[in-house]
Amino acid sequence: MTETRDLPGLKLRLEAAFHLKSVLEGKPFAPIGPDRLAESRDRALANRMVTTALRRHGQIDAVFKEVLAKGVPQRAGILEAVLRIAVVQLLWLDDIPAHSAIHLGVESARADKRAGRFDKLVNGVLRSIQRGADRFGALDNAMLIPGWLASQWTGAYGADAVTRFCEILVQSPPLDLTLKAPDPDLIAVLGGQPVLGPTVRLTERDAAVADLAGFAEGKWWVQDVSAALPARLLGAARGEKILDLCAAPGGKTAQLASAGAEVTALDISADRMERVRANLDRLDLDAEIVVADALGYAPGPVFDAVLLDAPCSATGTFRRHPEVLLHRNAQGIAERVALQRRMLAHAASLLKPGGRLIYCVCSLEADEGEQQLGWAKKELPDLEPAPIGAAELDGWDVPLTAEGTVRLTPSMTLPNGVSGGLDGFFIARFVKKTA
Known about the structure:
This protein is of the alpha/beta class. The chain is built from 17 helices and twelve strands. The protein folds into two domains: 2-139, NusB-like (N-utilizing Substance Protein B Homolog, Chain A, Orthogonal Bundle); 225-432, Vaccinia Virus protein VP39 (Rossmann fold, 3-Layer(aba) Sandwich). The mean pLDDT is 95.
């Protein structure tokens, strides 16, 4: 067994398989770190295998349906993950020879007690896929999005947008950074492209995030262009008391603190808030860190503004987190809708009269976005919608709705000819009535 595990390339494939298995079982994807694979090239390849398997999940299902008459055997350890990783190598990673993918796929199965019983099946299935590689590699991208979501999104955004969603899903997303202060020289060094406001996009990079120019000096933080808009639209002023509810991972807190506001950042996760604290330290920014359940936090109406990035389905993040397409269902979304309403009402109770409230979700679901605006109008009479205008987005009017809200979709055209998509988001702004 020791000799088998020492086969070149086997360890990283096993790490990829175990990692993929945990995601298939419902855990969120987190990149394989140096504690698991010391070599950066091995980590990059293993992570690419896992993320490609997640992005191509629907197509791999179609492949399995054809080559596995009885389906993937159950109670077989890492077998399904091993097969998915090997299929990725055979069909979509051109830099890996087919014979290597098959051999290491078989050896990966043999390295696991339960999966090892099916080594001959693995060999036969992978050779069948190799023979049909041209056909399987050209499967329709429409298979990539679960049918119930595709139906909802087609109704909301149109068939062309959903086709574009599928195209974006199989692409590696660019890296968006929010600059702490304008810095044309830093943008040039990074090889970045200005997108909107303080957001800079890196479409290519050859270094880890922590090794990029300006990271150690605290000149920027990672934040998708969509996620940078809610804090900007809150309009934080120096000295204002602002509450960032559900603050982790902390990008919005950093924006508010950078504007000079007195920020209280609250989240229920102590571990995530420790990372927020560490990031603020790196950026030389300050905020009060509170670990608590947002619904139980009741200091009274003491805040000039509240930013509520409510817990949601996160379906809008599928280009960066393709596992959300596997983990979400209608019942879970309905449960989140109910929670969002409670949190929105509670957030309003923490505002001073005349205070501002931003409600946002990284979701493409109308139940979590547009319909929540309608609910708030009816059920929260102390809140008055405050429409958002194009001038607040540097003249970019593409995402503005007739209601004065912002609806962002992954296929939307960005300013300055920037490509690469963006996260789906919904943003609404309110003002608390003074009387």
